[in-house]
Amino acid sequence: MDYDAIVIGSGPNGLAAAVELARSGASVLVREARDTVGGGTRTAELTLPGFHHDVCSACHPMGILSPFFRSLKLEDHGLQWASSDISVAHPLDDEPAVLLTRSIEETAAGLGADGERYARLVRPFAERIHDLLPDALGPLGIPRHPFLLARFGLTGLRSARGLARRFSGERAKALLAGCAGHATQPLENPLTAAMTLMFLVSGHAEDWPVAVGGSQAITAALASVLRAHGGVIETGAPVGSLEELPPSKVVLFDTAPDQLARLGRDHLPARYRRQLTAYRYGPGSFKLDWALSGPIPWRDPAVGRAATVHLGGTLDEIARGERDAFEGRIPERPYVLMVQQSALDPTRAPAGSHTAYAYCHVPAGSDEDMTARIEAQIERFAPGFRDLVLMRHSMGPKDFHAYSPNYVGGAVTGGVADWRQLFTRPAVRLDPYATPNPRLYICSASTPPGGGVHGMCGYHGARSALRRMARLTAARW
Description:
- The chain has 477 residues and is an alpha/beta fold.
- The protein contains 18 helices and 16 strands.
- It has two domains: 3-41 and 215-281 and 414-469, FAD/NAD(P)-binding domain (3-Layer(bba) Sandwich); 81-210 and 285-403, Polyamine Oxidase, Chain A, domain 2 (Alpha-Beta Complex), CATH 3.90.660.50.
- The strands form four sheets. Strands 7-6-12-13-14-11-15 form a seven-stranded mixed beta sheet, with helices on both faces.
- The two termini are 14 Å apart.
């Protein structure tokens, strides 16, 4: 059978691209190498029977806010969100945790003298989040709300550490540092303030959620939408060469740039392929999943209600750990991102039991076992945590790369999003999704706006392909 479009890879971006193509009237085939769709949004019993763990992504602030996902009404296709009144808890030594909640006033009240200054920072963007996101989560172009985007951009251009200088107290600085750690680069780098501000604002727009039953539910809903529009999904179907694909007008890659370079070696110019192979992926990740016999005994009980916990103490400590990982050193006291899925979604574990998930950044390809360091950071704020562990499961950078070829060196966010390749990812082109070959496109997290479960890379990749598809006829490679 001939298709208008073939998508290689079924992560959230691959499925998003396929859905946008299909609902625009194109016939679409998705080819997935593994036996299930999902990419970075799969769920499995990694520890014990009945304990359902997210293999990669776990908490989804950008998923619930994604302009594209919202347009699809994924809830009509089985997706349910579970959330708490606390999106982020940031424990500190010898004082109550800093809490990010939907209420700007409540969050600001926990920051002491910095509260009013914090409210002034986030309120203009939180009040217009649905105007901001379509412009912010896309490639460079003509924005629909230029003044709002410019205001956000002027703040976001600086470093996270520079943004933190607006505040005098350690509590506000720690809250910013925890959100900045999601950028997977030194907090001194330009543009890390944009990531920091986006995560803060997202917490005031929606409570950070997990997907009921596991992150797999997100891609299951996307697959349901695709099939409703006539799309076809083939699993257990790796692609060894473009020549083995059915005839199609275009092929979209939900893959890392190196896979596009390899599969497209006979169809792409050498100069473009050199840009793809020079793409920088950044640090890797080391992740732990636990089956627990009970709730985590946080010293501050409010932390137990949070969707996400940022562990690392002060801004200086977090900045040091993130800089070490980026520059190739093992952080002794790593910044740890932790998600408490079962605290929000009881279906994740047997009655009375719990799951937990945490990861830290490490040098790309590292073999270092970070279990003791991660658990030490948890014990620091929740004494007795280790006594609850029934079983743990770990994944290091090489495990992540083996799990998905997209995670080169264990980098799970699609590559470094610094000033050198935030908008020029994966190569320097006016249209970052299009390649020099009008039949080949890339729509993975290695394109703007980058990592996260939001589907916007796939959506924009599909729109790029649709603009040229009408001029192409189906042909075998």
